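Task 17 of the worksheet. Students: predict the tertiary structure of the chain below and write it out as C-alpha cells. Keep your answer in the requested format; marks are given for formatting as well as content.
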Amino acid sequence: MKAIAYQKFGSSEVLQMVEQSKPAITSDQVLVKIKAFSINPMDWKIRKGEMKLMSGSKFPKNTGADFAGIIEEIGSSVNNLNIGDEVFGVVKNLMKEGVSAEYVAVPASLIWKKPDTISFSQAASLPVVGTAAVAAVEKMGKINARTRILINGATGGFGMILLQLLKQKSANITAVTSTEGVAYAERWGATEVIDYTRENVLSQKKTYDIVVDLSGKMRYTKAKEIMKSKSLFINPTPQPVEIPLAVLGNLFRSKKHIVLLSNPATSYTEFLLDAVDKGLDIEVNTVFPFAQYKQAYQYAEKGGYVGKIAVEVNGNQ
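Model answer:
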C-alpha cells in the first residue's frame, strides 16, 4: 500500500510517499480502508522533533492520528462492527502511530460508525480536536453566563468545536481570530470577537476567568496579564518543559496553568456523536488529494485558516 512516511525529523520536505505492507490485524482489531485523514498541529510538532521525549526517535514514522474510511477486515473477537461499515476513529498511541496510508489496523474500541449526515473528511476531522474540546470543557469546571472565557485562536479545528460546546453552557466567550474567522466565531457562539489583525487582546483592560490558547503563541507568562486573580490558563499545545513546571507552579499560585493532554475516550466520542446528531458544525477548509500531501502540510502549518485540513485517500475506489 502507499503511505506517507519520514526517515528523520524536519520540515514537510522530509515527508515521502513510500510502499509499505498492508497491516495485519489481531483478534481485537479492524482493517480500515482509509478515505480521509485530517491534519493536526501535533503532526508537525512530532515530525519536527519537538515531542521526541514522548514520540521517540525510531524511524520510519507515519503521520496523522484521526481518519475515516470503510472496514475491510474484522478480527475474530470483534462483534459490534461489520465489513463495509463506514467508520471514523483514531490510533491508540497518538505519539508513535500514524494513519497517513491507504489502510490502517486499529482496535475496534477506537472506531465508531460514521453518521450519514457528515462526509468522510468531516468525520476524520473530529476525533482529536473534538475529544480535546470536551476535555477542555471538563477542566473548566462549573461555568455559566457570568464566566468570562477568552479563546485565542478560536476558529481552527479545536476552537470550532470548543466554541459550540461552550455556547450550550451560555458562557460569556471572547474569541480571538483572523478577519476571515470573525463571522464563523459569531456563528459558533462567541459573545464578542476580536480580530487580531486589528487589535491586540493583551492591550485590553478586561480580565478573564479562563484563558484558552489554541494558537500556541500566547504563553502563560503573557496570559497572566489578562487573567483574574483566581483563574485558569488552559494550554493544549505545551512545550515539553512546561508540563512538569505547570504542575509544580500550580502549588503556589491562584492563576493556574492547566496543561491539557487528552487521549480520545469512548465517553467523549459518544458525546460528540450526540452533538453531531444535534447539528454540530464541522468546517473542513480544504481537502487535498493524497498525492498533494506536502502541499497539505505546508498549507496547514502556515495557519490562519478556519476549521480543519483533510487529505483524501483512495479517491472513489
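Marker's comment: The radius of gyration is 19 Å. The first helix runs from residue 41 to 47.
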